[in-house]
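Changelog note: in this version the structure field was regenerated for every chain. One regenerated record is shown below for reference.
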Amino acid sequence: MPAIPEWLPRLPGIIADFEALSTMTLDREIFVHVFGVKRSRAFKLLHEFGARQTARGLAADRLQVLAKLRGMLDDYHA
């Protein structure tokens, strides 16, 4: 069984932080700040949340990330 991510207990706050953002794309620095992880882990999380390569680096769609996080929250509380 895979290890539970260290940020999972903070999921409601992470969702709230992403909801408060005005930007529609999320980059590695945003993931570092919101998830409270190192840059290398943020890079992996971006991939896990469907990030795509852009001219400025990896970026994930905020609404897609929020949808996945909300699904995780439902599963976590089930």
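Spot check on this record: The mean pLDDT is 92. The two ends are 18 Å apart (CA to CA).
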